[in-house]
Design a protein that fits this description.
single chain, 318 residues, alpha/beta, 7-stranded mixed beta sheet, 8 helices
């Protein structure tokens, strides 16, 4: 019988593991992909908004030679923490069921079954893309994830969205020789775009290097063209690839299956903000999964504290 089982091997799941280890609790971390799987799947060119010290966990310094760490820096940092602390992490193993049983839980995975007194769910939100729900979205040329800009050189690329991921894709593919068109639902580039990037995209739009349609929506995707609904009517433009940077969401169906209560509007999970305990006794939330559809509310910087809050409550109740 474990004291604790942690679902999710991302930065916050690792932070919870470090705190549990220092408290002398028996635990295991279950991760359905590779270590820090979401970070691994970020674009290869990704740079964090936060400075390195704000991404630190477990009191371990995150040392970089530049102010804003990138994806490679983060992978190295979190991997070294996991390895040097010998955290018990089972990778490429997915939790399929959580079953209450006499005040404890049986956790069934694709490889095994575990019994634990407490559970922390730190599953992130990067696994399921938010769909456009338009004709043609299932074509192979439509991408919801982005790795590297070189692939799109000399191609006609439509980027849907106005937040950080969409703007990064637009600028990076443009600079590798793509002909880029931005389709933005609102009337401006999102104010949440990184402060050093936002002036860049605004200037590229103003000079005409990147075409942008504001107050617009992508309506239909075809093999060699797309239809865009604009304030001036629907236009059709030639197109090779569509980058639908429309965001991502937690696996709400799985969370509901496990017995967690979600709000009806933005699918925000029910939990005690002082302890992070959910409607299921002894089951806690940590990290970005707490925000439901509002995935911008929680990130590494402001959810690191969840590890302290949860382990303190676990120790009080054991």
């Amino acid at each position: 019988m474990l004291d604790l089982l942690i679902i999710g091997g991302g930065p916050i799941g690792i932070a919870c593991g470090l705190k549990a280890q220092k408290a002398g609790l028996s635990f295991v971390i279950i991760e359905k992909g590779c270590l820090v799987n979401s970070l691994y799947n970020y674009p290869s060119t990704m740079t964090f908004f936060s400075t390195s010290e704000k991404l630190e966990i477990g009191g371990v310094p995150f040392v970089t030679t530049h102010n804003k760490p990138n994806r490679a820096d983060a992978l190295e940092y979190y991997r070294r923490i996991a390895l040097s602390n010998h955290l018990p992490i089972n990778l490429f193993e997915e939790v399929t069921a959580i079953t209450p049983e006499d005040g404890t839980y049986t956790i069934t995975t694709t490889k095994d079954a575990y019994k634990a007194k407490r559970i922390i769910i730190s599953t992130g939100f990067y696994d399921i893309a938010v769909n456009l729900d338009i004709p043609g979205e299932n074509l192979p040329k439509v991408m919801h994830y982005y790795k590297d800009p070189h692939f799109y050189a000399l191609q006609k690329v439509v980027v849907v969205g106005s937040s950080n991921s969409a703007i990064d894709v637009a600028l990076e593919t443009f600079r590798k020789g793509a002909e880029v068109t931005l389709v933005i639902r609102g009337n401006e580039v999102s104010s949440r775009v990184k402060y050093w990037v936002r002036p860049d995209i605004i200037n590229r739009i103003k000079e005409g290097s990147i075409q942008a349609y504001f107050n617009s929506n992508l309506k239909v995707i075809r093999e060699h063209e797309v239809d865009i609904e604009t304030p001036d009517g629907t236009i059709t433009i030639p197109n090779d690839y569509v980058m639908a940077m429309t965001g991502y969401k937690p696996n709400f169906e799985l969370l509901k299956k496990w017995g967690l209560i979600l709000s009806k509007d933005k699918f925000i999970l029910e939990y005690n903000p002082e302890t992070m305990e959910t409607n299921l006794p002894g089951v806690y939330l940590a990290g970005v999964v707490c925000g439901g559809l509002d995935t911008h509310l929680w990130f590494i910087e402001n959810s690191r504290i969840h590890a302290d809050m949860i382990i303190e409550d676990v120790l009080r109740k054991l």
